[in-house]
């Protein structure tokens, strides 16, 4: 979201101060930008551009009510300023006034139907009110008007996500990142899309890229928790399947009335299964950026449910190896570990189910 910047050749003091406010806004120094715009308005209360910059700064700071007031004062001076209507739409979204936000976005479109940004704004607002098909039409029109705009392609990704069109969403996000490799939001959203398809290593790379651009992003850090959870659950499932397979092989061997023909089968099942799990772990972990490995480990250790999943994974994998490799006379002793493992599995599954319902 942006407001109209003053002309570069403004030489009067108000113009210089307004330009400074615009530069502060461009660098995300919203408090300073608000003060600079306020100083311009103190000398020139009818300066619409200053009102819009003040509104932009306050909206970016989360002060949607005062941001909307500032934008409306600017629109009172310049009612056909499309930037003002777009800012009003953003403020109304922040206030939860969704239909009013749609009307404001349509007002921007009426003022400048030839600008891609007005169509992209309308698409984003329509997504928020659940009108995804209309949003996709608006986003596509935005791309037609400006095919090199990352914001327009991101609007397509948002609409596609709302419609459940995963292939279209991924293609749009990839295009956003081709045009703007430093777009942390697109990196994060691509990571979420990849994670939904269980492409864990690729998702980790996207989250790593997002954090490299914006290390303080709370959304990406939350998604790291999700990544750690998915990784733990995948390994938990692999270890459980390995344990069951080896236990079945051992049971068949014991039922074979003393023959030793099943011993190679039991060992083969255990070793092949362990090799496959190890290969998956190695390949996936190599795809996780080194900068993320520490945070993922720490998050796993700080969450009781995740820690329980990791402990169960290690216990089941270790028991499966013992069942596979121990001589048949000793292997039944490893079966004794199945009881506490089974109890812990019940505890874990119940806790995970309750947490899923709360989430």
Automatic annotation (TrEMBL):
It comes from the Bacteria. The keyword RNA-binding does not apply. SMART domains: TPR. Keywords: Membrane, TPR repeat, Transmembrane, Transmembrane helix. It holds the Pfam family TPR_16. SUPFAM superfamilies: TPR-like. One of its GO terms (biological process) is negative regulation of DNA-templated transcription. This is Tetratricopeptide repeat protein. Coiled coil: none annotated. The chain crosses the membrane at residues 235-252, 303-325, 331-351. TPR repeats lie at residues 48-81, 116-149, 184-217.
């Amino acid at each position: 979201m942006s407001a109209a910047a003053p002309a570069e050749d403004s030489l009067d003091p108000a113009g210089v101060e307004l330009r400074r406010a615009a530069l502060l806004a461009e660098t995300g120094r919203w408090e300073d930008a608000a003060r600079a715009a306020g100083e311009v308005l103190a000398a020139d209360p009818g300066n619409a551009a200053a009102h819009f910059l003040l509104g932009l700064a306050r909206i970016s700071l989360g002060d949607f009510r005062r941001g909307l007031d500032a934008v409306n004062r600017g629109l009172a001076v310049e009612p056909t300023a499309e930037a003002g209507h777009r800012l009003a739409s953003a403020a109304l979204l922040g206030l939860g006034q969704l239909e009013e936000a749609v009307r404001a976005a349509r007002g921007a479109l009426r003022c400048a139907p030839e600008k891609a940004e007005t169509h992209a704004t309308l698409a984003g607002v329509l997504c928020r009110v659940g009108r995804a098909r209309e949003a996709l039409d608006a986003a596509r029109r935005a791309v037609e008007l400006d095919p090199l705009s990352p914001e327009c392609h991101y609007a397509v990704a948002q609409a596609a996500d709302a419609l459940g069109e995963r292939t279209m969403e991924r293609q749009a996000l990839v295009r956003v990142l081709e045009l703007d490799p430093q777009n942390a939001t697109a990196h994060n959203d691509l990571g979420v899309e990849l994670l939904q398809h269980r492409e864990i290593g690729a998702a980790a790379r996207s989250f790593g890229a997002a954090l490299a651009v914006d290390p303080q992003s709370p959304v990406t850090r939350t998604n790291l928790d999700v990544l750690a959870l998915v990784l733990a659950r995948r390994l938990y499932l692999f270890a459980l399947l390995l344990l069951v397979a080896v236990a079945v092989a051992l049971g068949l061997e014991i039922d074979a009335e003393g023959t030793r023909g099943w011993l190679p089968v039991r060992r083969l099942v255990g070793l092949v299964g362990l090799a496959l799990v190890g290969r998956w772990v190695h390949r996936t972990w190599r795809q996780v950026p080194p900068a993320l490995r520490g945070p993922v480990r720490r998050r796993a250790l700080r969450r009781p449910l995740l820690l329980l999943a990791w402990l169960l994974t290690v216990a089941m994998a270790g028991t499966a190896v013992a069942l596979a490799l121990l001589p048949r006379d000793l292997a039944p002793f490893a079966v004794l570990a199945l009881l506490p493992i089974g109890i812990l599995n019940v505890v874990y599954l119940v806790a995970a189910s309750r947490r899923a319902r709360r989430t």
